[in-house]
UniProtKB/TrEMBL annotation:
GO-annotated biological processes: glucan catabolic process
Statement: the UniProt record of this protein carries the keyword Hydrolase: yes
Superkingdom of this protein's organism: Bacteria
A Pfam family matched in the record: Glyco_hydro_3
Family of this protein: Belongs to the glycosyl hydrolase 3 family.
PROSITE patterns noted in UniProt: GLYCOSYL_HYDROL_F3
InterPro entries: Cellulose_Degrad_GH3, Fn3-like, GH, Glyco_hydro_3_AS, Glyco_hydro_3_C, Glyco_hydro_3_C_sf, Glyco_hydro_3_N, Glyco_hydro_3_N_sf
Gene3D superfamilies, per the entry: Glycoside hydrolase family 3 C-terminal domain, Glycoside hydrolase, family 3, N-terminal domain, Immunoglobulins
Protein name: Beta-glucosidase
Amino acid sequence: MQKTTQKTSYSGFAKCSCIVLSFILSGILSVRAQEQIPANSPYKNPGLSIEQRVDDLLMRMTPEEKVGQLSTLLGWPMYTKTKNGVVASEVLKTAVATQNIGALWGTLRADPWTQKTLQTGLNPQLAAKATNAIQKIAVEESRLGIPLFLAEEAMHGHMAIGTTDFPAAIAQASTFNPDLNQKMGAAIAAELRAQGAHIGYGPILDLAREPRWSRVEETFGEDPYLIAEMGLGLIQGFQGSGIDQKDRVISTLKHFAAYGVSEGGHNGGAVHVGERELMQAYMYPFKKAIDNGALSVMTAYSSVDGIPSTAHKKLLTGLLREQWGFKGFVVSDLGSIEGIKNDHHAAATLEEAAALAMNAGVDVDLGGKGFDDALFSAFKAGDVSEERLNEAVKNVLRLKFEMGLFENPYVDEKLPAKVVRNREHTALAKEVALEGITLLKNEGNLLPLSKDLKKIAVIGPNADTMYNQLGDYTAPQDPEYIITPLEGIRAKWPNAQVTYVKGTAIRDTTQTDIPAAVAAAKEAEVAIVVLGGSSARDFKTEYLETGAASVSSKEDELLSDMESGEGYDRSTLDLMGKQLELLQAVAATGTPTVLVLITGRPLLINWPAKHIPAILDAWYPGSQGGHALAEVLIGDYNPAGRLPISIPRSVGQTPVYYNHWWPKRRDYVEESAAALYAFGHGLSYTKFEYSGLTISQSGNGKDTAFDVSVTVENTGDHDGDEVVQLYLRDEVSSVVTPVKQLRGFKRIHLAKGESKTLSFKITPEDLALYNVDMDFVAEAGSFEIQLGASSQDIRLTDTLTLTETIRIKN
């Protein structure tokens, strides 16, 4: 007891001494803050190494300047539109002068939350002028002249006016084409950089195993391997061979960690996963991304096993930096530092929350309220060390130097006119939409439809509602550049009589005219019914400080369509409103009916799966989705999309992801335990046969490799793509493993009658698991290899044998 008392007394004395010393240093550094910086200062010399420049600049910074460098403020108040253009706002000038800010977020963002419209926001040309004006204040009116980082939302295109809107991430994943994602990422990066942005928020690497969760659309689905491969495509597109290239940006991975499986599907809710599952599944895509050079990571709103993600030192420092060797910077999600106190109640004060986040490994505060005064107070109190503060600042400055911002902080204001939403990017948006459209059912080969149709009924709330095609995190759009399904169909059948009836809204039941839809269907040769969901925000929706929408609304006359998108968690997955009633009434006419789903999450479609002959899932297909859908309907394009997430039969059945752990799931009293449509499912207008599966081994130890080859032949009547999927099953293991897991896929094009032989390489890392001691090892034993067209459509199987246990460094 006496030792404890003495230790406490000594600690109190040491802390007091630190506080006194900090005040002395503050006095010295306040004088330093008035010093002029010589033009020949080493940090201004591009001939020196980045580390030399960082060290020199850091040495000159006051604690206030260091703390300020870690603040990322909301960017849209930082410019003012004038009659002649755009200028930096007084808000920005004050922030630079008094807060020494290091970055802005969403400067060019426009949406109902920011209150930036097509009229009040910035087109790409004005955006470049605005970012130049903003950088000019930071560079020329601050003591050290440190340029700002400008970060923007960029998951399916830059969230700004006049940019290219690509399909949502869940639709991107349906392509099973990482190379296409890389092309898309490069296009988005070019648009961002041309307007003066440096950081793109994306990809989202969360596993979506809870379909009630509002943000499923932003993910690449339920499978760690697919998420990793699609994510790497986007990262490589964003960052290219280096961020010193003037058309590349820093990629920020979201959300660290296990954000997509919160309890009850509540956005930001508690996450309950064991350490083995966390590492084996949820961390797998992040590890792949870090190994491939991703430079920024964003924390999550949720907690993992009782520890807020933004204060999780074991993950942010122990795993991310010390074990994985991450060299970039960690940024909080908007408001998540304050959330340690206000949401999780894991801190008593904002100063304590700031210290917890900083000491856990968070380098940058998104929003500007989490660090700032709170972090400075924690630093002065000795709760954050100078060493840790310096480390965080260096993680940011290092990338500013690497990007060349000190030499080239401005952009060519004529460039956006050439780059942003150009013909190539628009064509690419259509290509992604085409490859992502998934044919779930095609009874009697109803599709493709005849090119000679004379009367077509297009029905449903998503047939001609522009914003319902685009998903969440979408800026205001010029209707000229957004093609709805109705517009695409009319363009493809120019000589047909195309009758459009909305029939009903997504949620609101007062906007319903089912009799009109029935009358149109009766007169048509085919009825195309476009249903689903919506993430379309409007100006009547209320928003939280984080930008998430609030479902609690005032007594509006009409309900918005929005039932998905951040903040719109659901307790059921039914088609909302009177959509199913509309579909049933149309089908009852006897007119051949095609159901098109445009949505952000899997919805319950048991009745359509039983009664509707043809079903297409387009997710949110983006700006060119209408053209893409029409090409699939008419047969100009043979669909080959695959489900990146399983479609359940009921909410009570969830979670229903295919790669659950053993044992095999038993059926319920009421229904099957199997998904209605399983991961990887997707049909074609042609047929493919698999043959000639062979497995050969080479090398030994960590260099062991198994080469798996298979021949695929197009035996049908149409040219088309096939997505060949390789699954692996560990037959006996020291810990429980998944019943199967994806470990390879290839999308190939085959003309009718053509065949190709494909090769896959399986390494010890592909076979590895975390054993009882949490060592990452490939255990000796037998593994079943499964080749097929989906997780449930396995065509060929064989076995490989690993003769020795191999430890993998992880």
